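Crash report, auto-generated. Payload:
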Amino acid sequence: MGAPGDPGCTGHGGRLRRMAAMPARRRPHLEPYEVFRQEKDGDPMRHGGSVMAPDPELALHYARELYGRRQESTRLWIVRRADIGVLDDPDWLQPPLDRSFKKPGGYVMREKLGQARARSGQAKRAAGAGRAKDPGGA
Amino acid sequence: MTLGAGLQPEIQAGLEALLLAMADDEFVIGYWDSEWTGIAPLLEEDVAMSSIAQDEIGHARAFYSLLGELTGRDPDAIAYDRPPEAFRHCRLVDHPRTDWAFTIARRYLYETADAVRLAALADSTFVPLAGLVAKIRREETYHLAHGEGWLRRLADARPEGRTRLLAALRVLAPDAATVFTPLPGEAELVAEGILERPSTALADEWRLRLAPPFDELRLSIPGPAADPATGRTAHGDGFRWLWGEFTAVRNLDPVATW
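Recovered output after restart:
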């Protein structure tokens, strides 16, 4: 079993790339599969960890034994690590120019929301359900 | 005191012409491409193209701001309060948005040319410009990759995608090299080390850079500009319409505080 979050690859420079870097001839018998699990119906799939397996079918079995045998999962996704596209280039993800205008946090919505609610005859929803300020990104 | 204090008048004039040309290029292509918002070929691409268009307008804002510091003028006034004939964008970006293949062909020609131009400013002796260019170049690497991905996709999509791409390249070819229209005062900028090499040398480098992908995809590399003398001054009706669009809100109330 590989460590969760082990990048399995090194270095920047490439843009989108595949995890696979090992030449076929030197590929060992086992290879890592990443396992995602859903705790209960409707939950998002979250990364659980990884398993080493010689083929996709056995990876399924191993994932079941390690991440599902205690009824702690309703669904597992098992993905060969080499098939995962990786993007971690800072030029793509963290460019240095000010991009605050791509986030809606700068817009003051409280008054407009209040007017819209008054027009539609809706009262303000219970606390926490309709936050007036949402700094989430676009 | 403005940023240009101490510069010789002819150097300052050359620098102003360079900044205005680059700002207008980014501004105009940004507005054309933002027209895809809501109507791009697929939802994810709609978000991507809109974001790229917004990036370009952000770059324009940065160049207009630098020009504003150099001249003591308000960047918004430079961007929005000029008549259409005072714009100095190149004719490559003057064409209307047209279809998706046209937008991609134009983006690719422009992004590759812009990359060569930005590289020639990376070590500029005008330090504020070199600093800004370093940031912008990092963002343009993604734009270039996006453009090249689409160029390949269309070039290989037979028959319709490729047919449309070839038609677009035929229309754009005579104007592609107008990105490198020599600027007034350019010789002084090169002599001062503000611009590494003259526009003609940059145009040659751009064509060399286009050769590998264009040869591989069997596309024709655009030749010299058909009408280089008016490469940044003769604007068409399409641009005048766009100008009416992007100045409309400002003109409702030019002194409003936003």
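Post-recovery validation: The first helix of chain A runs from residue 56 to 67.
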